[in-house]
Amino acid sequence: xxxxxxxxxxxxxxxxxxxxxxxxxxxxxxxxxxxxxxxxxxxxxxxxxxxxxxxxxxxxxxxxxxxxxxxxxxxxxxxxxxxxxxxxxxxxxxxxxxxxxxxxxxxxxxxxxxxxxxxxxxxxxxxxxxxxxxxxxxxxxxxxxxxxxxxxxxxxxxxxxxxxxxxxxxxxxxxxxxxxxxxxxxxxxxxxxxxxxxxxxxxxxxxxxxxxxxxxxxxxxxxxxxxxxxxxxxxxxxxxxxxxxxxxxxxxxxxxxxxxxxxxxxxxxxxxxxxxxxxxxxxxxxxxxxxxxxxxxxxxxxxxxxxxxxxxxxxxxxxxxxxxxxxxxxxxxxxxxxxxxxxxx
Length: 345
Ligand code: MRU
Fold this sequence. Notes:
Elements lengths: L6 E3 L4 E4 L10 E4 L2 H9 L6 H17 L7 H13 L6 H14 L6 H30 L8 E4 L14 H10 L5 E5 L6 H13 L3 E4 L4 H8 L3 E4 L3 E3 L4 E4 L2 H10 L4 E4 L5 E2 L16 H4 E2 L2 E2 L12 E4 L6 E4 L2 E3 L3 H11 L1
Parallel strand pairs: 4-5, 4-7, 5-6, 7-10, 8-11, 10-15
Antiparallel strand pairs: 1-2, 2-3, 8-9, 9-14, 12-13, 15-16
Helix pairs in contact: 1-2, 2-3, 2-4, 2-5, 3-4, 4-5, 5-6
């Protein structure tokens, strides 16, 4: 268990560790409506693909809890579902979790009280499963981490981005726990600084040796420190293995290829979207210009300068050495092997 909880369900409210203020302030936000949950996802109070999915599931629970017999149940739930789906478009875990909830409420013909109970149970299950899955991912991935490994990591994929333990940072954490004496280089991850603010905070809390670097330093770091592997998370893995993840992952993958550093994507199978054939079909979120023009409260670029701010990029499958999941490590050819992973399930 971590010393903090990114997400906590308390019967009629969702408590989120507000990731916008870390590491300066540890503030918790209590959410009581689906509108508040949708806003928290959009504004990145909660972030990271698996954490967004869990928060959205609880958003549906908060919605149904407010309904009474006279309400048009399906209409209200559909409205909430639409609102949550519109909050962030790239992470498929959001849609995956909402699909799980929808399977229950769509066509439900029991009592409202039963529906409230069953939807709450489903959200609690999604939350609980996330921790178990991450621990299994870590066990599967650790074999790729040599003793004394130097690892490079992008964005934040730890307990903050999930319910607990994390995906890529989960593998790193487990390698540390079993005494592999690793060192992790953390890309700061402009513009929201998830690496510098969040991953570094988690590594410090866990006592894992780490060094923060600017995103542009990855080439030099690979050359100078002989990095063994790169571990990154994912927001959506297309059927052919192309992977959307935090902006800058694609650059890192190109630099890694040049330096013969294997790059592994670490993600639960809920991040694999077989309905999306290839990277070009993944919707990429674009965020506000001020995320780039400003750092904290300081303006660092002219207000008049145009900005292009995609939150994610797509790393082509050919730059990925393997995909570490809770069901095992998938190697190329990804199209065949990802399909097989689901068939075997
Ligand atoms: O915009 P964010 O901070 O939600 O982006 C997060 C990432 O890109 C993570 O790498 C991804 O969601 C995997 S988290 C286990």
